Amino acid sequence: MKIIHISAECYPIAKVGGLADVVGALPKYQNTLGHPSSVIMPFYDNKYTQEHTFEKVYEAEFNLGPNYYVFSVLKTKDSDLDIEAYFIDIPELLYKNYVYSVDDTKRFIAFQIAALDWIKVHKQQPDIIHCHDHHTGLISFMLQECFDYQVLNTIPVITTIHNAQYQGWFGYDKLHLIPDFNEEKIGLLDWNGCINPLAAAIKCAWRVTTVSPSYMEELKQNANGLESLLSHESTKCQGILNGIDTQVWNPETDDFIIENFTKDTISTGRKANKNWLCKEYNLDPNKPLFGFIGRLVSEKGVEIFPDVFKNVLETEAVSILLLGSGEKETENTLKSLKPVYNGKYNAYIGYDERLSHIIYAGTDFLLMPSKVEPCGLNQMYALRYGAIPIVRRIGGLKDTVIDIDQDGFGICHDDVSVYEVEYAIKRAVALYNDSKRFKKLQKQIMTIDHSWDVSAKAYINLYQSIN
Ligand SMILES: Nc1ncnc2c1ncn2[C@@H]1O[C@H](COP(=O)(O)OP(=O)(O)O[C@H]2O[C@H](CO)[C@@H](O)[C@H](O)[C@H]2O)[C@@H](O)[C@H]1O
């Protein structure tokens, strides 16, 4: 089966968050299962595109409302990837030093048109088009209803919702950007008086998946306005838990970390990474270290951090290290705590792939008090690197972490409240002080298998069921 993934992000080419990790890994595992799987993504102006050379495999032009654009499809000449990636180059719209910004509607409609124009002329048509999130949400509508793409409408389209909070809404003033379609079908684009690409995908895709089974269930109650639509379409929806790329995320071979380790050398390996972090960020390596890595947005539960950190740092012998970027106000608040708790707390506000790996390898505990967590990859990376996750029981966190009091290996809490997270940290400190149990758990969690093997097969089964 020939599969094409269409996405705004793909690791290591362009990454903002977990979407990139999934699109960088799933096709790789599908290739290994014998199903040629490639990725179509925008050609951005970033480190990856600057450091590689590309060849043009196709060029054409298209209409975006009243304007004409020329686009090229590029392929790396010196690919170091295990997947085949094709890049849509529209210099005026996509070749930017960012992935997302305020002009996304126009940029991603253009991306979707160019991607489909190219698929249309492809010698070998795909058996499946797999779209990711709202940036590619109009593809299933376009195949079904736009006159230009009718020839492709027998190709099954799958949409994966990585995060239903973001839906890509836009007003009717931009309707003219979508290629011509039968206007009686306008209802397929509409949700609550706006054009809603994610809603259109839920209506038009052949199948809809979310990135964990629990999140699928939760969306029926809480989907940022799409609850009734998801309940209505529930027969074509399925939750498939994300995996992790165990080649990229492997403490034994990871080039980013300070010292590599296996479960047999975990003690010295993790110590070297923790010592490096503590030296670099002026923290005490003899205290339990609590880390956080992620986008600083409300759904990650980060608003409670200032109060949690103040309470904990004043009463417990702990160190805290945070890596994240996002909402400016949260960034500033978290930055402002640094001088107050000098030596006990530090934060790197920004994006740093290498540092994230070292934190997984060196922190004793990883905090994830998410309000919403469709799957969450960080807890799985933490497990693989022997860091104990402290998670709220929600979405994929609920599906992957079991509390130590239920014979499990993590620390779980039910609500996102200062009290509950503080209590979870206190339980973690008690666990840390029970050194024999703590060390045994660290070894045990490194052996939990969250690789893509199982889930990549689940996607193949899903594709086969509609092919
Ligand atoms: N400042 C920073 N510096 C370096 N690395 C950083 C970073 N901030 C985040 N990261 C990295 O980005 C990734 C984040 O992945 P998540 O799954 O936690 O989140 P995200 O919410 O982006 O993804 C959405 O999609 C994914 C994939 O489906 C779901 O798991 C998730 O629940 C859903 O919200 C991890 O690889 C993490 O290490």
From TrEMBL:
<keyword id="KW-0808">Transferase</keyword>
<comment type="similarity">
    <text>Belongs to the glycosyltransferase 1 family. Bacterial/plant glycogen synthase subfamily.</text>
</comment>
<keyword id="KW-0320">Glycogen biosynthesis</keyword>
<feature type="binding site">
    <location>
        <position position="15"/>
    </location>
    <ligand>
        <name>ADP-alpha-D-glucose</name>
    </ligand>
</feature>
<comment type="function">
    <text>Synthesizes alpha-1,4-glucan chains using ADP-glucose.</text>
</comment>
<dbReference type="Pfam" id="PF08323">
    <property type="entry name" value="Glyco_transf_5"/>
</dbReference>
<dbReference type="InterPro" id="IPR001296">
    <property type="entry name" value="Glyco_trans_1"/>
</dbReference>
<feature type="domain" description="Starch synthase catalytic">
    <location>
        <begin position="2"/>
        <end position="231"/>
    </location>
</feature>
<keyword id="KW-0328">Glycosyltransferase</keyword>
<comment type="pathway">
    <text>Glycan biosynthesis; glycogen biosynthesis.</text>
</comment>
<dbReference type="Pfam" id="PF00534">
    <property type="entry name" value="Glycos_transf_1"/>
</dbReference>
<dbReference type="InterPro" id="IPR013534">
    <property type="entry name" value="Starch_synth_cat_dom"/>
</dbReference>
<protein>
    <recommendedName>
        <fullName>Glycogen synthase</fullName>
        <ecNumber>2.4.1.21</ecNumber>
    </recommendedName>
</protein>
<dbReference type="InterPro" id="IPR011835">
    <property type="entry name" value="GS/SS"/>
</dbReference>
<feature type="domain" description="Glycosyl transferase family 1">
    <location>
        <begin position="280"/>
        <end position="440"/>
    </location>
</feature>
